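SAMPLE LOG
Freezer: B-3
Tube label: C17
Construct: single chain, 249 aa
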Amino acid sequence: MERGSDGDVDGLSELLIDAINERLAQDPDQHEARKLNKAKAQLLPEGEAQGAGEIVRQILSAANTLSTLPGLRTIGGWTSAAIMIAQLNQVRRYLDRKGKGEDGLTLDARIRDRVTKEFNPSGPTIVVAHSLGTVVAFEALHDYDGAVPLFVTLGSPIGMRTAVQPHMRPQPLQAPHTVRRWLNFWDRDDIVVANPQLHKWVAPNSASVAPVSRRVDSDGAWVHPAAKYLAQPAVAGPVMEALEGVSTI
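STRUCTURE (predicted):
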């Protein structure tokens, strides 16, 4: 985990607290609720304000606690905790809208620019996005005028109502105007997802298209990787159907 400014680690702590609060709101069983509340307490210690180094230690302690939840367990716990923090840290850095390069573009703008270059400028584009990529794709598609028969989001953090949604663009959140179908897949054991019901906070576009969230259940210690989601027939099926439809145009 990188050691940044106090603002950097505060932002990462906010992301983790948001994820915990969303999961607590989903009525977990007593064992899971105890783990979640313990991790939250580790992120919100009583006493005087802490420096960046101490906040980093609190974040890692909380992540290790979360890694003992069903679906996040690994031998020793550390590997899953480190991956979890890395994923959330990517989201934090993108939403900071900082880090201008020699081209004068911020980090988030450079990422969107790279993504939009992959879109088909003259024909339909099927977009499958994962984790932070769902936030990037959502924003990039608002500046894209080509047809999007299918937009698929996997393991998306867009459901984080405090740490992610208010920082996304454009506001208020609305499905990109050229998207004709949006499927959002989530796994119950994916802590990055937080709250999967995106239709509650993302308004339909002018064609009445809104995100439709569907749950999948993967095996293994860490269910967040894109490969885990894509291995699910419920995910692969609609993507293949959309690709076949595009190939016949």
